[in-house]
Amino acid sequence: MTVLSFELPDGSTKNVQVNHLLNAGYAGREQDEVQAHIAELAELGVPGPATTPALYPVSPYLAQQVREVRVQHARTSGEAEWALVITDEGVLLTVACDHTDRELEVHGVAWSKNASPDVLGRKAWWLQNVRDHLDQITLKGWVGDGETPGTLIQDSSLEALLTPDYWLEVLSERGLNAPGTVLISGTVAMNGGVNQFARSWKVEMADPVTGLSVEASYVVEQMPEPIG
């Protein structure tokens, strides 16, 4: 099983073995906007969910803290998200980038989520320490054609998404609110006119109250063509 290691604001480190990994989808608080987004995706051939919000189980080993993501073709991209990580001492909150295979997505969203890793930040906060001002925390994503992602592609806040507490209740109903469960939040809108099929990605979650931020960044490497 994958073991993630998080640096906490007090300088200590918390290690967590991942037993369950889930990706939320269509998880905006304004479900009218979500339905409009589903209609847009349908025009691109992406099948809509049976219900919203959606929740996709993902192979636990895909929760990673890597600097490089290897893919099979050019049409893959990330998504700026937050992640909750349940530990034996409480719930951690960090940033994540759900790297998704867009070609596979048209055949099944759940399949596309299992094609690439969820890249998590190396720092985290205790959820209980930021719960009273979650909506003020910003969530941003950048992309780049080279090694450094410098073009803003996502710019929002946690106010746009269903809350960690909402998902903790869902996990409790499914018997998954237990140490070792990681849940990725679903994403926010991308800025128009920016190429998401980028060489490099960076996501950041920043807390204006504490002045702290957590980030994750990586480059995308396309693997050689297969033989056969």
What would you say about this model in short?
GO terms for molecular function: catalytic activity. The protein is mainly beta and 228 residues long. It has helices at residues 31-43, 102-105, 109-113, 164-173, and strands at 3-7, 13-17, 20-25, 54-58, 63-64, 68-71, 76-77, 80-86, 91-98, 100-101, 118-120, 125-126, 138-144, 151-157, 181-184, 200-206, 213-222.
Describe this structure as you would to a colleague:
This protein has 228 residues and is mainly beta. The protein has a domain at 3-131 and 164-189: Fumarylacetoacetase-like, C-terminal domain (Fumarylacetoacetate hydrolase, domain 2), CATH 3.90.850. Helix content is 14%, strand content 38%. Strands 3, 4, 5, 8, 9, 11, 12 and 15 form an 8-stranded mixed beta sheet that branches. The two termini are 31 Å apart. The mean pLDDT is 93.
CATH superfamily of the domain at 3-131 and 164-189: Fumarylacetoacetase-like, C-terminal domain
CATH fold annotation of the domain at 3-131 and 164-189: Fumarylacetoacetate hydrolase, domain 2
Order of helices and strands: EEEHEEEEEEEHHEEEEHEEE
Please bin the fraction of helical residues: 10-25%
Largest sheet: 8 strands, mixed
Low-pLDDT stretches: none
Q: What is the structural class?
A: mainly beta
| Terminal Cα span | 31 Å
Please state roughly what percent of the residues sit in beta strands, choosing from under 5%, 5-15%, 15-25%, 25-35%, 35-45% or over 45%. Answer: 35-45%
What's the total number of strands? Answer: 17
Chain-averaged pLDDT? 93
Write down the CATH class of the domain at 3-131 and 164-189. Alpha Beta
The shape is: globular
What Rg do the Cα atoms give? 17 Å
Protein name: DUF2848 domain-containing protein
Pfam families: DUF2848
GO molecular function, one term: catalytic activity
